[in-house]
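Trying the structure run again after the queue cleared.
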Amino acid sequence: MKIVITGATGFVANALVNRLIQENHEVYAIVREESNTSSISKDAKLYVDNGDSHALNNFFANVNPDGVVHLASLVLVEHTTDDIFPLINSNILFGTRLLEAASKSNTKWFINTGTFWQHYNNEDYNPVNLYAASKEAFEVMAKYYYETQGIDFVTLKLNDTFGEGDTRRKIFNLWRDLEKSGKSLGMSPGEQIIDISYIENIIDAYSQLIENMNVDNKHKYNGKSFSLNADERMSLKALSKVYEKVTNSTLDIVWGERPYRDREVMVPWDKGEVVPGWKQKIPLENAIARVINSEEEN
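Done. Tokens:
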């Protein structure tokens, strides 16, 4: 297939580009003018978007893709007044421009990426923050396109993610740094439940959803939302014990030194529908071991 991907400089989309190329798909990555594209596979074709919607339309018309996987997003736990324009531009305007271009080129399907943070307190919709609200707003915008323009649209919602090559300041990277430093780390009381997924399991879900969308001639997935839940859910404290077991280490964590954040998610959303045909292949402990081994080999 010809597949357009956004967000390819990010952790999840970068891994997806590699997988799709391995599966012999023709991948087109849309990047910004200021993006550092050195991490993107040389086998992917790049399109630099400068905000010109007519040029974007022409790009889609020339490529005539089978589908789009939209992962580009501005993620902000908290926002300031100055963040509002870039947040709306990245999470609503850019996606709407993509849908306009895709629908004009008769692109068959569009896979959007959402977040569990759209479901504070496990509700059908209650945004944890403005970022989550912007993700919900884009889904509302998308309804016009999939109801009227003949493009099938689905959303895959993610929560915490980790894996090889992840340089973000996420929990396992923080603990790895703590393990090496020998220092102490103040954290919240640690009772919040963590739902964290390994990158290979995540990419399996996207790959399966792409296959589902490509053969869905009856449009049964159109407008649906799926979630990627880890098989193992546990408190942050319990997760630290799993990490210590796998790495044969002891973390000097001062539990309760920091308060919970405003609107801390204590129990992640668990009402989402699993992608048909997907199940988690790699257990959490094995995944952590893979990441540590990969780091040590490099």
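The chain is about 40% helix and 20% strand. Worth checking whether this holds up in the mutant runs.
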